């Protein structure tokens, strides 16, 4: 039976559908019968009248998006191995080796000075509306949970109130707000706010400004992400803002200073401009120079995030991160995404997560076997729940220390925010109202947080932050249960032997043992003893 990997020509992401939904040509995604007279509901038809607008997921600003392509191998092709024997990281005593006793704390950085309560972080949400409109929940929730949150690219360049003099930023509104929301709620030094920079941010010297003026300690160089292999894009609905961004040097399409374009926009021929970032040009010389500049500026920790580029680029990322002693390397597999990426690109480019993360392990192992420095690693690309988090940590053990997630935390923050709004409007859906009518009743973590923070501070918490914090609490308990079942009571004990490949192909790609080969030698010894 043929497996259709791609879903083409119709998707909820592009607000398109086939007329003959049950009869679609697998190779093209077209209706089996394309009828003269059809109004054009499919992607081809919509492209006939909206053109380039249909490249991108819609509606922009209120959705997050990720690929719906079915990859030949994903993390579901591995199972977690449990055991009935012993315990690692705790005394093998049934009264002590309980799942609440599992430690999820992790420390990364050259001096292990970055401490997280949980082994995950949000690897980069930047200038898109979906990030900006939910930042309060993301920042406060991450800070309360003691995890990492990355301020993504273009935040300063997109800020109309940012002050830029002689090509450098000297003051901001949005970036200040983002950093402050996290810092004001950080507890006991756990968690970290990380500032990412692309080529435009670097030209503006955004990271230098954040280090000296805002006290940011962790900065991240960005080569790319899993969602696309070009620069970031957003939609702009205001002519004045489009013109401002054009003046700041961004690629804005169509040209918002062209009189004909202005007239077309004003009469409603189109309603959105596109702002695009440039693509970077990686060389070892420029990489080394930038790392040195950031260290001289006072950066305490320097990270690198790379995307689903070809294996040679991953090798460069691993080698450069080792050679220049970076503190964290995040590798994001194909198919992911948060804000706006070209839909076909999101589905059809790059190395998928399992393959990319398997190569990452292989390259890190090679560097380590030479006795050279390997930075802490983070993997990203479609992680949502505790089972996949466990598998990601195990596949890359002992080098992978963190898992990156963006869409799922944003979803949790958005749901929390929506619940708060419906509470205020006295319009709680029945599905939610069965748990109660207040945030103390609805959010299961509320009573413990209220006791910990006190009434005044708790009452000020936005429900978006409660949503993220509560989602993280669920992940933590679930991960502790999985680790206890594998008898691993601290993260450093998770190993590649803790998962098994369910297919020969998954075993070949990852180097993880096929399920029928797991423990083969040990089992034979037991049977022959």
Structural descriptors:
single chain
In a few lines, what is going on in this structure?
With 529 residues, the chain is α/β, with parallel strands linked by helices. The chain has helices at 43-50, 129-132, 135-145, 174-183, 199-204, 206-214, 239-247, 259-266, 284-297, 311-323, 343-348, 353-369, 386-395, 407-424, 430-433, 439-442, 446-453, 455-460, 463-485, 504-510, 520-528; strands at 78-80, 106-108, 114-116, 120-125, 148-151, 163-165, 168-171, 192-197, 218-222, 233-236, 251-253, 273-276, 301-306, 328-332, 376-380, 400-404, 499-501.
Structure description:
- The protein is an alpha/beta fold and 529 residues long.
- Among the domains are: 12-55, no CATH class; 233-276, no CATH class.
- Helix content is 39%, strand content 14%.
- It is built from 21 helices and 17 strands.
- The chain has helices at residues 43-50, 129-132, 135-145, 174-183, 199-204, 206-214, 239-247, 259-266, 284-297, 311-323, 343-348, 353-369, 386-395, 407-424, 430-433, 439-442, 446-453, 455-460, 463-485, 504-510, 520-528; strands at residues 78-80, 106-108, 114-116, 120-125, 148-151, 163-165, 168-171, 192-197, 218-222, 233-236, 251-253, 273-276, 301-306, 328-332, 376-380, 400-404, 499-501.
- The strands form 5 sheets. An 8-stranded parallel β-barrel has the order 4-5-8-9-13-14-15-16, surrounded by 7 helices. Strands 10-12-11 form a 3-stranded antiparallel beta sheet, with helices on one face.
- α13 (386-395) links the parallel β15 (376-380) and β16.
- The longest helix is centred in the last third of the chain and has 23 residues, at 463-485.
- It is globular and about 85 Å long.
- It starts with 42 loop residues before the first helix and ends with a helix.
- The mean pLDDT is 94.
